[in-house]
C-alpha cells in the first residue's frame, strides 16, 4: 500500500493481473480519529469507496493519484466487515449503524460487530455510532494486531 503524495488521506493498493474467476483478499488495518457527534456519541467511519471520488479542484469525478481508473455504477466485488469494540467497563450504552444492517454479538469484554448480510457491496461508507452512557474526561485504548504491533488512542479534556 502506498500513500498519495498530494492527497495524504488517499492510499493506493495495486493488485496484479488476476486470471478470470480467481479472487484476491485484501485486509486493511488502520488507526483513525473518531468523530464526537454529540456530547455522548462518537462515530467511526470506514471509507469503502475504492473507485474515484468527486474532486472539485478537477471539476467533478477524478481518479486518485492520476490513475486511469474509470467510474462505474456497480462492481462484482463485495466487502466483509468485522469490528471489535471494548466495553470500557460499562461505559458503552449502544452501538448502531445508519449506513448498514449490522449484527452485534455481546461478549464479556467486547462487542463484536459484523454485517448482518453476506455479499455487501461497496457502494457507501460504513458508519458506526457508539453511544456512551456517560461522557468521561479520559479514555485510553490499546490495540494489538497480533504481530507485536500496538496502536494507542488517548482522549482527554484538560482541566485547570
From TrEMBL:
<protein>
    <submittedName>
        <fullName>Uncharacterized protein</fullName>
    </submittedName>
</protein>
Amino acid at each position: 500500500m502506498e500513500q498519495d503524495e498530494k492527497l495524504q488521506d488517499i492510499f493506493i493498493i495495486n493488485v496484479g493481473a488476476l486470471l478470470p474467476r480467481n479472487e484476491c483478499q485484501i485486509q486493511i488495518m488502520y488507526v483513525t480519529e473518531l468523530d464526537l457527534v454529540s456530547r455522548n456519541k462518537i462515530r467511526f467511519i470506514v471509507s469503502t469507496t475504492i473507485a474515484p471520488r468527486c474532486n472539485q479542484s478537477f471539476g467533478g469525478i477524478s481518479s486518485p493519484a492520476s490513475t486511469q481508473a474509470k467510474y462505474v455504477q456497480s462492481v462484482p466485488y463485495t466487502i466483509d466487515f468485522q469490528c471489535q469494540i471494548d466495553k470500557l467497563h460499562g461505559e458503552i450504552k449502544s452501538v448502531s449503524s445508519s449506513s448498514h444492517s449490522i449484527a452485534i454479538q455481546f461478549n464479556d469484554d467486547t462487542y463484536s460487530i459484523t454485517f448482518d448480510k453476506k455479499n455487501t457491496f461497496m457502494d457507501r461508507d460504513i458508519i458506526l455510532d457508539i453511544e456512551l452512557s456517560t461522557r468521561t474526561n479520559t479514555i485510553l485504548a490499546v490495540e494489538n494486531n497480533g504481530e507485536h504491533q500496538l496502536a494507542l488512542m488517548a482522549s482527554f479534556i484538560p482541566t485547570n
